[in-house]
Amino acid sequence: MTKQVFWDDVDVGHKIPGYSLKIDPTRIALQVSGSQDFYPVHHDLDFAKAGGHPDIFVNTGFMQGCFNRLICGWIGDYGWLKKFRMEMRRMNIPGDTMTFQGKVSKKFIEDGEHLVECELWAENEREGVTTPSFALVSLPTRSE
After folding, report:
1. Is the pLDDT of residue 137 over 70?
2. Would the pLDDT of 1 be above 70?
3. Which of 111, 105, 133, 118 shows the shortest CA–CA distance to 79?
4. C-beta of residue 16 within 8 angstroms of C-beta of residue 102
5. Rounded to the nearest 10 degrees, how much is the dihedral formed by the CA atoms of 84, 89, 95, 101?
6. CATH class as words, domain 7-138
7. CA 91 from chain center: how many Å?
8. Out of 6-10, 58-62, 67-71, 130-134, which region has the weakest mean confidence (pLDDT)?
9. pLDDT digits (tens, 9 = 90+) for 49-80
10. Residue 104 CA to chain centroid, in angstroms?
11. What are the residue ranges spanned by the domains of the chain?
12. Residue 2 pLDDT > 60, yes or no?
């Protein structure tokens, strides 16, 4: 069981513990194989370069999985991810170290549910923020 975060204990500006992930061709190939997203831009360097890309790059499913690890690891077993959105604006390629982070941007009660809006993002040293994201989560209270 993960450590449970409670609605009572978070405030606007609260940082969501992040993590970093080094990207290399093997990691990308393993993810492409697991997701069966065999579009060549994710595993064939010549194909990627012919399309104007600097290298192969991680796919949408990879990024979604990484954000899932970030937010679901933070909300704990009794939190609930209600909405998620991400915008893939820049690429993460081999050699990059992606860092996933977040913070609480709003906290409110609606229809008796204790909700928290979170700004999430992925960044790398080459491009800065590559993937801004948003999550709406429901958290338990200490009195529940």
Report:
1. yes
2. no
3. 118
4. yes
5. -40
6. alpha beta
7. 14
8. 58-62
9. 999 999 989 999 999 999 999 999 999 999 99
10. 14
11. 7-138
12. yes
